[in-house]
Specification:
The structure holds 2 protein chains of 2 kinds. Chain A is mostly beta strands. Chain A is 0% helix and 49% strand. The chains are: A mainly beta, B mainly beta.
């Protein structure tokens, strides 16, 4: 069974540009989470989807960040316009839900560098 | 918001030595988790703790859920070179292994094992 995949693995952009990150969860997982780790700090929660609905978006830093999960399958996280402080590693995780295991399985992350 | 303080920040040990790391919180968590991250990968769950006072082992790893529900520790016995990586504690407000909510992470402990 394929794990959580993320694309791209790395992205280098200039301040003011737009970047879109993609996450494909494990097939059949209703829960999808986005997290971010800024260099040397803790991994911080951004938001949680249950299927296509936003269950909790309390961690989204500001309105430059837009997450979508149309159709309840893959998710995208768009940063527009990017700022220097947005640099970090963005992780996506998924879990089964519906009475199944709540273990969150993480993808390898997207390393975003904003210059 | 909720915060986890994880220590030590880094450890340099010889192969065969035991390792201990811990996390404390100012607020209660009802589930404690320990993850390991290898370079270029996402965090992988090592041990999950669901009950205050619970002591759980997974091979050479042992973790405990503090009685106050505000702390946890992880011990690794007889370290080997493949133990190298970043270890994260994480807390979850939901209880009993049925919560699908967000994880709150510690800052991570970087472990280096010299052969």
């Amino acid at each position: 069974e394929a794990g959580v995949t993320q694309f791209p693995s790395h992205s280098v952009i200039e301040k003011g540009q737009t970047v879109t990150l993609r996450c494909d969860p494990i097939s059949g997982h209703d829960n999808l989470y986005w997290y971010r780790r800024v260099m040397g700090k803790e991994i911080k929660f951004l938001l949680h989807f249950v299927k296509e609905s936003k269950q909790d978006e309390s961690g989204m830093p500001n309105n430059r960040f837009l997450a979508e999960r149309t159709g309840g399958t893959y998710s995208t996280l768009k940063v527009q316009p990017a700022e220097l402080e947005d640099s970090g590693v963005y992780f996506c995780a998924s879990s089964h839900g519906q009475g199944g295991s709540n273990e969150q399985f993480f993808g390898p992350g997207t390393r975003l560098t904003v210059l | 918001g909720q915060q986890l303080n994880q220590s030590p920040q880094s450890m340099f040990i010889q192969e065969g030595e035991d390792v201990s790391m811990n996390c404390t919180s100012s607020s209660i968590f009802n589930t404690w988790l320990w993850y390991k991250q290898d370079p270029g990968e996402g965090p992988v769950l090592l041990i999950a703790l669901y009950k205050a006072g619970e002591l759980t082992s997974n091979g050479r790893l042992t973790a405990q859920f503090g009685i106050t529900r505000k702390d946890s520790f992880l011990n690794i016995s007889a370290s080997i070179p493949s133990d190298v990586g970043i270890y994260f504690c994480a807390g979850q407000v939901g209880a009993g292994g049925t919560s699908y909510g967000k994880l709150t992470f510690g800052q991570g402990t970087i472990l280096t094992v010299h052969p």
